[in-house]
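[step 3/7] inverse_fold.run input=structure_tokens len=276
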């Protein structure tokens, strides 16, 4: 039997960023799944606060060089890679001088407000990952998304990329976390994110660009959902409760890796793929 392949797309991974619930899962889950016999690939944004020299990141020339067009502007895609030696874990980084060359993740350090271009950063990250996986020629069975910055990935996989041989049979799992942000992303998110092959009704779900709205739209495009944090925003908890497909409730730090591995098998073997 061939190894199942799991693609992890994470907003945060420690030790590249400060420890948080999301970042710790981003670090330990891929390692645990790999140790349980599955093949994995892991992606995250190369935020400017990540020290490239200390973490020994280097550019992968053969994967870099593509331009992604967002809102009629070209943005060169740069792919870097680093390794967490003790975990035998390789991490791919999506980089861009336009979007990630600043010393903060999501908020302006002076005003405390969300960066005005977080919508375009999320679009660039989602599309950058999918295009890079295509270049790798690596066909995942499961794509597991962590953090609201990955919320557009399920939409793209189920619409514009649904007929691509790399993604046509993949199952998308989306995790919900208690990492709420105040305010909204740019109201033109869906206009900027639009690509050929998208179902307009599904795209409209992303018109609510607040934290709950983005997560709700993401799981409505996913095959399965996991409650990643024990305590969620009450509106997000309601979204989880109302989800019709396979779902996994919160798992303790001691148990979640085994539980997630079993859940991937269940989702892959039993659920029907959503078609865009």
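[step 3/7] decode complete -> sequence:
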């Amino acid at each position: 039997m061939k190894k199942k392949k799991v693609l992890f797309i994470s907003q945060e991974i420690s030790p590249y960023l400060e420890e948080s619930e999301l970042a710790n899962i981003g670090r330990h889950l891929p390692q645990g799944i790999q140790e349980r016999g599955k093949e994995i690939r892991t992606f995250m944004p190369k935020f400017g606060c990540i020290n490239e020299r200390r973490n020994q990141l280097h550019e992968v020339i053969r994967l870099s060089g593509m331009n992604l067009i967002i809102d009629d502007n070209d943005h060169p895609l740069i792919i870097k890679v680093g390794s967490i030696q003790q975990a035998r874990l390789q991490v791919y980084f999506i980089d861009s001088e336009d979007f990630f060359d600043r010393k903060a993740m999501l908020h302006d350090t002076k005003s405390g407000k969300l960066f005005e271009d977080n919508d375009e950063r999320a679009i660039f990250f989602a599309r950058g990952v999918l295009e890079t996986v295509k270049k790798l020629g690596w066909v995942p069975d499961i794509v597991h998304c962590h953090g609201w910055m990955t919320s557009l990935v399920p939409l793209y996989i189920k619409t514009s990329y649904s007929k691509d041989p790399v993604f046509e049979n993949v199952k998308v799992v989306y995790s919900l976390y208690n990492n709420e942000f105040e305010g909204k992303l740019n109201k033109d998110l869906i206009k900027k994110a639009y690509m050929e092959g998208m179902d307009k009704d599904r795209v409209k779900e992303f018109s609510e660009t607040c934290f709950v709205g983005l997560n709700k739209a993401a799981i409505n495009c996913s095959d399965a959902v996991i409650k990643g944090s024990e305590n969620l925003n009450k509106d997000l908890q309601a979204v989880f409760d109302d989800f019709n497909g396979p779902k996994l409730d919160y798992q303790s730090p001691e148990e979640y890796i085994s539980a997630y591995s079993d859940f991937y098998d269940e989702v892959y073997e039993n659920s029907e793929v959503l078609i865009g």
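[step 4/7] annotate
Helices lie at 21-35, 118-136, 152-158, 189-193, 200-204, 211-220, 234-242, 256-270.
The chain has one domain: 5-270.
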